[in-house]
Amino acid sequence: xxxPRMGLGCMPLSHAYGIPPxxxxxxxxxxxxxxxxxxFLDTATLYGAGSNEQIVGRALAGGxxxxxxxxxxxxxxxxxxxxxxxxxxxxxRAQVDASLGRLGVDHIDIYYLHRWDKRVPIGESVAALAxxxxxxxxxxxxxxxxxxxxxxxxxxxxxxxxxQNEYSxxxxxxELGILEATRDLGVPLVAFSPVARGFLSDGVASPDDLPEKDxxxxxxxxxxxxxxxxxxxxxxxxxxxxxxxxxxxxxxLVWLLSRGPHVVPIPGTTSAAHALENEAATELTVxxxxxxxxxxxxxxATVSGPRYNETNAAExxxxxxxxxx
Length: 325
What we know:
Layout: E1 8-9, H1 23-35, E2 40-42, H2 51-60, E3 69-74, E4 76-79, E5 82-85, H3 89-103, E6 110-113, H4 122-134, E7 141-144, H5 148-155, E8 160-166, H6 178-185, E9 189-192, H7 226-231, H8 234-244, H9 248-257, E10 263-265, H10 272-279, H11 288-297, H12 310-313
Parallel strand pairs: 1-2, 2-3, 3-6, 6-7, 7-8, 8-9, 9-10
Antiparallel strand pairs: 4-5
GO molecular function: oxidoreductase activity
Domain NADP-dependent oxidoreductase: 5-286
Protein name: Aldo/keto reductase
């Protein structure tokens, strides 16, 4: 199933950024935005150790399931309090069944291999998910944080419905090959963290203000010495958004949408107003010259620091500019 041009990343409703809302508030927020036209939801086994899927499932109850394209992920989960990457076929089969139960649905439109388990040939993981497509439990097989080589290897085993890699003005890794490869194969490139984990939405005044468990505290670009360099880009970024007549987040999203009709940003938020503001970016027109200036202002050459620390960088397979601290 082909996703819409914009989606909603549901992860913040459970963990990672800021302080998540109460589950009831998260359900209400999702129901509001679905009723107002947000039609692509992204969740995962990992998020909130399964609680995120439960929130999404509650939001879809009562007739909303058929209004959305629903995506989830497996192959990475919290096991006994520890994050575990496990792409064995038996694990994926069990996790899909568990996801279906938490979501309260009979099928999931796109199910991603959240991370390639480097101990398991990716063809084995994809073949297991393809079996679940055949029996109707999932609509299509997705991959996340993969390289061109891994995509082509997987695509030779079964059709790949989507690739979800990080992509934004400040994380240009897909331009090392996966942007072109997905276009050539006719595969949507679902861009997570499209507003640079809040940086491009002008949502981080100071990393020191972030809650103790916020994952950005462990990311080099939000740490000394990189943060002070990156923060110096924000005044000019705000000015560009003003010239474009949109919010900073919308400018970041319009830039991504301009990268190709197969690029699908999935910004995350806990705010219905922000979700609808993001969705509205699909209707905006920004001059090519201004988008080019945005691309020159926030780029690999101007952003300081790698996107991941060494531990997280080792978990991904995507092409890298040298993304470990």
